[in-house]
Design brief:
With 95 residues, this protein is mainly α. The protein has one helix and no strands. The longest helix has 93 residues. It is rod-shaped, with a radius of gyration of 40 Å.
């Protein structure tokens, strides 16, 4: 009789333990999936950041080239102004 009571009372406890263990397994599997998803999202984010950095650097390089070209054009214009236009303008003022 005592043995029957122990068995009958321990069955629900074992079933509860088993159900908790199964729930824990499901949670652990879901947690692993979430971790994989997070790592994948992080990798994609790093790829996007890298692409944006490269695009930014390319744009900076292009703008630097344009600035250098404009500075050269300004320098040529200043030389032209000082050597051709100013003497010509000075001659028209003196005459």
């Amino acid at each position: 009789m005592l043995a029957e009571r122990v068995v009958s009372t321990s069955l629900p406890v074992c079933r509860v333990c088993w159900m908790q263990a199964e729930a824990n397994k499901r949670r652990e599997a879901e947690l692993q999936k979430l971790r994989r998803d997070l790592e994948e999202a992080h990798a994609q984010n790093e790829t996007q950041v890298s692409a944006l950095r490269k695009k930014q650097q390319d744009t900076i390089n292009e703008m630097s080239e344009q600035l250098e070209a404009l500075q050269k054009m300004k320098q040529k214009y200043d030389i032209f102004t000082n050597t051709v236009l100013l003497p010509k303008y000075a001659l028209t003022l003196t005459t």
